[in-house]
Amino acid sequence: MTAVIFFVFGALALAGAFGVVLFRNPVHCALSLVITLVSVAVLFLQQDAHLLAAVQVVVYAGAIVVLFLFVIMLLGVDHPDSLRDPLRGQRWAAIVLGAVLLAEVLFLTGREWATGAKAPPADAIRGGAPGLGNNVERVARSLFTDFLWPFEITAALLVLAVIGAVVLARRSRNADEAAAEDAS
Q1: Where are the chain's structural domains?
Q2: SS3 for the chain, per residue?
Q3: CA-CA distance, 151 to 163, in Å (whole number)?
Q4: Above 60 in pLDDT, residue 158?
Q5: Are 57 and 96 in contact, with CB atoms under 8 Å apart?
Q6: Is 132's pLDDT higher than 60?
Q7: Is a pLDDT exceeding 90 seen at residue 110?
Q8: Looking at 58-67, 105-114, 121-130, 159-168, which range is the least confident one?
Q9: How does 61-95 read in b/e, with b if 16+ C-beta sit within 10 Å?
Q10: pTM surpassing 0.70?
Q11: For the CA atoms of the chain, what is the radius of gyration?
Q12: Buried b (16+ CB within 10 A) or exposed e, 23-44
């Protein structure tokens, strides 16, 4: 059963990654990124890395992709970009570099000297001091007790930054509309 889950979510991660690169609409690219990040989180869960899976979903799939979508919507990206390369040979260099990296992954996978030491057993990952719980519980306990004020201040600063960005964007949009009316 775990092999089926691995292959399904591995295929989803690859499909999402290709969607990020190949889709022309930036919103579709961001949604493909969400598919990739959630699929990687499931793969982390299969390795009993619960903290990494939680961080993957909450921070990356949640906050970062929402920020990307917010910027895309704020900038109003509604025209397709030109496919003209600003630097000659850039596309061919990227293809060659991608092929070299793919060859490294295919030929060096499974070699201990290439990937590092073997992972510790699952009991060592889930272990820790008795009564403290797993990694997610320990980080949550620390975050919401010892580091509650820095966490709350950071959240307030992020909310203020979003509000400031909306105000600045609205102000510049209103100035652009007024300039267009004056020109007419």
Answers
A1: 1-78
A2: CHHHHHHHHHHHHHHHHHHHHHCCCHHHHHHHHHHHHHHHHHHHHHCCCHHHHHHHHHHHHHHHHHHHHHHHHHHCCCCCCCCCCCCCCHHHHHHHHHHHHHHHHHHHCCCHHHHCCCCCCHHHHHCCCCCCCCHHHHHHHHHCCCCHHHHHHHHHHHHHHHHHHHHHHHHHHHHHHHHHHHHC
A3: 19
A4: yes
A5: no
A6: no
A7: no
A8: 121-130
A9: beeebeebbeebeeeeeeeeeeeeeeeeeeeeeee
A10: no
A11: 22
A12: eeebeebbbbbbbbbbbbbbbb
User: Which residues, in sequence order, are CB contacts of 140 under 8 Å at separation 6+?
Assistant: none
Tokens of 125: 């990952």
Select the CATH number that applies to the domain covering 1-78 from these four: 3.40.50.1110, 3.40.50.1820, 3.40.630.30, 1.20.120.1200: 1.20.120.1200
Amino acid sitting at position 183: A
Residues 6+ apart with CB under 8 A from 50: 44, 134, 135, 136
